C-alpha cells in the first residue's frame, strides 16, 4: 500500500447558522482529521435554498476545496457565473444541461489528484438523466487521470443510494449520500473497496426540522400549505464523514462519520 489520502466531507449546510459554523470551525476540523481534501454540499446555504458567490467564497476561505449541490442549486441565479466555471461549485452531473456548469471536477493537492462527482437521484425529485449511467461514464473517464473518485449522491431514497454504491463498487472510492439532512449510521466499505454512507447529515441548527424553523414546518404539516421555511437558529451541529483511501489504487481503507455540536 502506498500513500493514503483523507477526504473530509460535510453534509448539507443550512442557512447562516450553518455558514457561520463552517467559517468558525472548519479549520479546526481539518486539522483534527488531518484532511487532505475538504468538500461540502452547499445547496441550502443561502437562507435554506440555493447558494450565493459570497457564501461560496466564505467556504473557500474556510478551507473548502469543492462545493457539491443538488436540486436547490438553481434557486439563486447569482451563483450561475461561478457555477459555469465548473471547477469549484458543482451541479448534479445528470441534469440535461451539458453547456451549463459541470457535475465533475478533478482537484490536485501535493501531487495527488481527486475526482469529485455530483449526481442526483430521480425518486421524489426531478426526473433527469439516469444517475447510474452518468456516474459509470465519469468513473471510466476519471481512471485516466486518477484512481480516486468521490461521489456525492444527492437523493431521497436509501434504496436508490445503496443501489448506486453497489453499482459502482470497485469503480469509485466513495459514494456518500446527501439531501435528507438526517445523518445515518450505516457507514461501511462495500466489497472492501468503496466507502458508503446513506446520508452525511447536515451543518445547521439542532433545535430544528432538518435545519428549518420548527413552527413553520408544523404549520406546513397541519395546513398542507406552502408555508415559507426559514433556517432555524440555535446550537449548531457539524455532521459529515471522513474517508481514507489508498492514493495508488483508489480503494477506500476506512470511513468514519462524525457529529459535533459547536455553539
Q: Note the run of SSEs as H and E.
A: EEHEHEHEEHEHEEEEHEE
CATH superfamily, by name, is Metallo-dependent phosphatases
Task: Provide the structure class.
Answer: alpha/beta
The helix fraction, in percent, is: 25-40%
Q: What is the number of helical segments per DSSP (H or I, 4+ residues)?
A: 6
Proportion of beta-strand residues: 25-35%
Shape: globular
Q: How many domain regions?
A: 1
Mean pLDDT: 95
From the coordinates shown, what is the CATH architecture? 4-Layer Sandwich
Work out the number of β strands.
13
Distance between the termini: 40 Å
* Largest sheet, strands/sense/barrel: 7 strands, mixed
Q: Which blocks of ≥5 consecutive residues have pLDDT under 50? A: none
Instruction: Report the top-level CATH class.
Output: Alpha Beta
- CATH domain fold name: Purple Acid Phosphatase, chain A, domain 2
Radius of gyration: 17 Å
Describe this structure in words.
This protein is of the alpha/beta class and about 260 residues long. The chain has a single domain, classed as 4-Layer Sandwich (Purple Acid Phosphatase, chain A, domain 2), CATH 3.60.21. It has six helices and 13 strands. It has helices at about 15-35, 55-60, 80-85, 130-140, 160-165, 215-225; strands at about 5-10, 10-15, 35-40, 65-70, 105-110, 110-120, 150-155, 175-180, 190, 195, 200-205, 235-245, 250-260. The strands form two sheets. Strands 1, 2, 3, 4, 11, 12 and 13 form a seven-stranded mixed sheet that branches. A six-stranded mixed sheet has the order 5-6-7-8-10-9, covered by helices on one side. Helix 1 packs parallel to helix 2. The longest helix is centred in the N-terminal third of the chain and has 19 residues, at about 15-35. It starts with a strand and ends with a strand. The mean pLDDT is about 95.
